Amino acid sequence: MRQDDRTLTLSASLLDAVGRTPLLPLQRITAHLPAGVRVLAKAEWLNPSGSVKDRPAASILRAAHAAGAFAGGAALLDSTSGNMGIAYATLAPSLGVHVRLAVPASASPQRFAILRALGAEVELSDALEGSDGAIQLAQQLAAQEGSAVHYADQYNNPANWRAHYEATGPEIWEQTEGHITHFVAGLGTSGTLMGVGRYLRQQNPAVRIVAMQPDGPFHGLEGLKHMPSAIVPGIYDADLADEQVTVSTEDAQAMVRRLGREEGMFVGTSSGAAAVAALRVAERLTQGVVVTVFPDSGFKYLSETNKEST
Question: In the CATH hierarchy, which top-level class contains the domain 54-151?
Fold first, then answer.
């Protein structure tokens, strides 16, 4: 490498390292499927902060920075169940932006430790109110702080879903060489499903879009929403999905263990839920390519894993 090339690479923003994650085949847990059916998972834990949330975080940060939202030293403020906050706290320093977050007190200890290490300022919301409680706290803080903060509002910010329309969707289309027949994604902010679904629908209207969510309001699938009982994100369009699938916490946790032991993939519970849903879709097919998204690895859930194994 020439000296000037190395200097250019080193000077690139961490935001430029987001995306272009591999699409991995699930092989052993799909061994019972017909030969013409494949299930593939996007390995989003390979993003800089370790989750799919780097994509919307980078998009939101870029859009806000370009609009001058951080002029005068305004901090970025948002609610998060953990991963989006970690993504903000990882990527924002490259723009000189301080991060303030409203986080449910029920978030895992690993998430709080990472946020503290990255220098994010954290305000706790009621554990029993989940992500909705964090949203309400962030709204209160935004009203109180005024121009001292820029409320990113990931649940209503179009830069969220556009990150997936402009990058995640095209990556999946290219990696499957246009052969994808079904796309399965969990609903949290709904940005992944909205962005990827819209892109794929434009490329091939026959691609089936499948939305996955927890099977009830009280669940352990961190980052996912049970839409009938939650504050519905403004970016969510219920008409986009061709099908809705629900997954129990217990089935997701069991799948997490299977993925680790049979596929060598150490993933979080939302990834386990995505695999359960994708497998259910694939088991109905005789031919097809089912793609899902594994949002993060299992390292932020180690305290939960240890509890389950004792």
Answer: alpha beta
